[in-house]
Input
Amino acid sequence: MISELLSATVLIGILASGIRLATPYLYAAIGETFGQKSGVLNLGVEGQMLLGSFAAFYVAFNTGSLWLGLLAAILVGAAMGLAMAYVTVNLRAQQGISGIGFYLFGLGMSELLFQILMGTVETAQGFPKVYIPGLSDIPGIGEIFFSQNVLVYGAFLLVPLSSFVLNKTTLGLKIRAVGENPDAADSLGVSVARIRYFTIILGGALSGIAGASLSIALLNVFQQNMTSGLGFIAVALVYFGGWKPLGVLWGALLFSMVNSLQLWIQVLGIPIPSDIAVMMPYVLTILVLIASVSRVRSPSALSKPFERES
Amino acid sequence: MKKFAWFLTLAAVLAMALSACGAPAATEAPAATEAPITTEAAATEAPATEAAPAEPFRVAVVMPSAINDLAFSQSMYDALMRIQEEMGGPEAFEVVYSENMFVVDDAAAAIRDYASQGYDLVIAHGSQYGSSLQEIAPDFPETSFAWGTTADTFGQPNIFAYEAASQEGGYVNGVLAATLSTSGVIGVVGPIEVGDAKLYVDGFKAGVAATKPDAVVNVNYIGSFSDVALASEAATTHISAGADVLTGTAQMVVGAIGKAEESGALWFGTQSNQTSLAPSIVVASQVYHWEVALHEMLALIEAGTLGGQSFKANLANGGEVIEFNPDYALPDDAKAQADAAIQGIIDGTITIALP
Output
């Protein structure tokens, strides 16, 4: 039975599933990376995802346009980000607590809107698979990497793009400076508030896309609380990835691949109790986190409200 | 300014409390907004000749997920609505509910609150609420409580227990699944290997084994009642492993049904009728009709017995019904096999061996 795990069908299945499962994590965790790099811990990711997820589904369901749905998710996520930015930057609220508040708001509001506007679970057509010409015909590789929907490709393109922005651009430098030493950045004329507004709103928009990737690309359904803790895992992945987009990518892939592996383990009838199997991704993530914790350092000003000394 | 931030946070929390929980714990507001639930037809047409009861029979129910989850919670809500309609609307039979009570502490607060508000019957619709109910019930000896799914009344005189013989509908679905599968591989997406879900899955496996012994049933418990994404990937995994017929239980299967539809695999539902999600591939659903048990409880309460008995919903007493999708062209011989299985279970010629 163990040898069955190494057959082509199973390996391709595990990898393709893993890629799909990693997609929402990538959007949400990279958005969170921008926020944390600038010194803001946003625990409201899950709530932003849920509202984004609902907005995308509702708009796409009623207009028939997936792109309008995606736009709605981006706007709703960004609006949540804007509110979060006001509370954390202008009002200097405790970030952990207000983040939980935004999570609960998103959870409750998405349920309320769902009850009022839809009432029951519906299914819809989501973003279709896009077969990349030429590449999607490569045996194995094509099915895993080049036969996915557009939001999956987007998530993986986001990794090098955000890595570039954070490390090679002036904007990235400012973001890092604000997260490491806001006083110094401020004295050099960088607006701490403006940078943090930017990163939190960007994070919100990306969380909105993460939600949309579930409701109109991967699952094509909306149900109450359907993110089911995914947003919190995304926050953990930022720590896991050492505040680097590439690190986040490895973390998201590891977690998702082990999750799809355990699905196959059960399907192939390998005699491991299901309770143990479903624990595997979490246990492995914790182990890797323990092994890597000494190497990484969080942004110095993380979760500290900035108050200009005057 | 800091105070204002706290206020915002509080407001956000409050918004959640009002919308998601509807728990009567904090204020009386939720009760005012949610109750009574009106059904259009019955309310206005209630015959005026009968002496209208001065006091309606008042029922409160606490549920772990949403009333429209197309699964466990909806099965109870729909049953209460059917009773309400029979009895002549909310004037005669008032129903209030708290949904999405996935936190047991919140549920316990809601149960206690409903009891102290004088509801005649308070239903704790979730086996996880048992230990809370065991503590609460003795404090309200005049109130009748119902708890499911279980057979355990804790020996208390004011607790009814109810459960479903989910393996029976599972068996019938299994018979049909085995008949309709051409690949001989069938996939099951389950939540956690306990209670109702386990009964259903075990019954389903028995039904398949009795019909097509060489068919393979792959079972996947995903460890969650709410992770729609993982349920969806579990279905994809089954399909990659060759399954052409799928089933699953609990509310997160909506993700799996979508994947089944995409690949043209057939689906069998349970708990509520799931046909609306994918009319082209849902063959049949086992639906719980809790009103059968509820009617018996109501009669007992009327006669002054507030609890101490347990009820079982099964195919024989109509507490479980196999609802076929009229839009799915089920071959006659398959339908005949399913009917034979239902009849066999009812008259006892088929016994379902559970592991």
Summary: The longest strand of chain A covers residues 129-131. Chain A has a mean pLDDT of 92.
